[in-house]
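Exam prep: given the inputs below (a chain plus X2X), describe the expected output before reading on.
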Amino acid sequence: LVGSEMCIRDSISSEEVLLMKRCLLRSALALCACLLAAPLPSPAAPYKAEYKLSVVPGATSGWGMTAAYFADLVRERSQGRINIKVYPSSQLLAGKQTSEFLMLRNGAIDFALASTINWSPQIKELNLTALPFFLAVQPDRYKAMDAVMAGKSGKMMVDAIEKKGVKIIGWAENGFREMTTSKGPISKPEDMSGLKIRVVGSPIFIETFRALGANPVNMNWSEATTGFQQGVVDGQENPTNGINIPLKIWDYHKYHCDWHYIIDPLLMGVNPTVWKSFSPEDQKLLLECAAETEKYGKALSRLGMDDGSSLAYLKSIDKLPEVTEPYAFMEQQGMIVTRLSPEQIAKFHGATQKVRADWTAKIGPDLVKAAEEDMAAAK
Ligand code: X2X
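Solution:
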């Protein structure tokens, strides 16, 4: 047998060797084609080493704390796979808070915990919650805000943002904005006359303060504190727990007027390309973390001003901040706090009627009507 094999091998001609080589080459080519045609399991897109999350005010503001809560929760639940870093104090925006939306949309920023106020120059629907005294005259202003966020009007706001190119994964809250001044207490519209007030660079603010006889000036938040220190303005408006207390506003303004004239809900926005790069499981994880962040952020904003549920919630998650009684605390710091009655608020509501009418036309009467219906259903 060995001999005959040897014999066969010996008898292979050079043409046969060439034929065999061609045959082998063809098979190899066929295999290659086959491999190319078959869908190879694609490796998952690698996640970024760091996702940048923008926040306009500082790290110690309620807003900054809410962003940190989200980042920590995501890092912990994803076992470090998703690493979000919070950049407070408008660092990513070169101080210009109204450019945040565009930077998030174009991918210079990955995430933003953003106020409706700062995105309203690009998305007119977001002026809804800045309509003066629109929510303030509701029987329960927090219930009204929750009804908008969870209702048809909230969805219309989110849809308007998403249509312009940013994915929204949740809400939170900066809070109802209260007035602080250095020149005497405010209890009626006439008290606002001639006061120079710092406002955000969003047009509805200018019109609201002019309607009240004040002299509004645009200033980025990044420059505002210096402006207060130097006495460039006589007053400003920001939420009590979220901004005024952490900023120690009493160092500049002695008078605090609780008039709840508008609220800025916060939105957790994500660049859409970044959002799509997460696996479906991680998208679910991010949505769950955003839902918990909403509860935490709202509780921080409402602590000491609601029926006690914010205090109970923060205790239950072991996240009670230092100041739990904001009014008493501000008074201890020497502030004079004027808390307006519904009748006093009604006077301010009357004085700003034209601003609401003009801006209802700009925002879209359908959206304003949807919000009125959402709020009415929640009473
Ligand atoms: O600029 C403000 O007043 C602030 C920090 O509240 C916002 O970004 C809307």
